[in-house]
Amino acid sequence: MGSKEIITFVGKSYSERGFKFYFYKPRSDICPESCRFYNPCMNNLEENTIYKIISVTDIEHQCPYEYHNEPMSLVKVSESDVKILIESRRAYLGAQIEYEPLDCTFKDECEFAKYCSPVLGLQPGAKIKIREINLKIKDQKCPNSLTLVTIEKVK
Fold first, then answer.
1. Which of 13, 40, 58, 116 makes an SS bond possible with 104, Cβ 3.0 to 4.6 Å?
2. 17 with 31, same domain?
3. Handedness of CA 123, 127, 130, 136 (dihedral sign)
């Protein structure tokens, strides 16, 4: 997704290049804003976003509030690619559109159903930009004209 790189902390057992995680929101009920690690650990990340670890440092700290329940590693992350299905008539490279989850009635029969309405990282009405056209879905089980695209959020 976007190319912006962010420094943050993750639990040591998750600190592997390529690992993806979902950041729901800062948890000031567990880690107060007065914590010296609050900014890099919680405040650097955008709510409701999937991140991918792109590099891991040798720097480790113990979380003062035991949020991670293990040592935490300093890592560099960027937003992870998100693939979704959209109506083919809206699938133009570079187009900026509003995300609309698809109401799929063939979820049990279609290998692409998970792309119709991803649960994490994308809210209905979010502004998105089509970064890559991946695949036009031509399947007799799906009566809709859909295209698999890679998108990024527009901020």
1. 116
2. yes
3. positive
Tell me the two tokens of residue 104: 């799929």
Range of the domain at 95: 82-153
pTM, two decimals, is: 0.78
The tens digit of pLDDT for each residue in 72-91 reads: 999 999 998 889 999 999 99
Q: Minimal CA–CA distance to 72: which of 86, 80, 62?
A: 62
User: Which is it for strands 96-98 and 127-137: parallel, antiparallel or unpaired?
Assistant: antiparallel
**DSSP characters over 35-88:** STTHIIIIITSPTTEEEEEEEEEEEEEE-TT-SSSSEEEEEEEEEPPEEEEEEG
Cβ atoms 5, 75 nearer than 8 A: no
Q: What are phi and psi of 38, to 5 degrees?
A: -55, -45
Which pLDDT tens digit goes with each residue over 112-141? 888 887 667 788 898 999 999 999 987 656
Residues 6+ apart with CB under 8 A from 41: 8, 9, 31, 35, 63, 67, 72
Same domain (yes/no): 94, 74: no
Residue 62 in any domain: the answer is yes
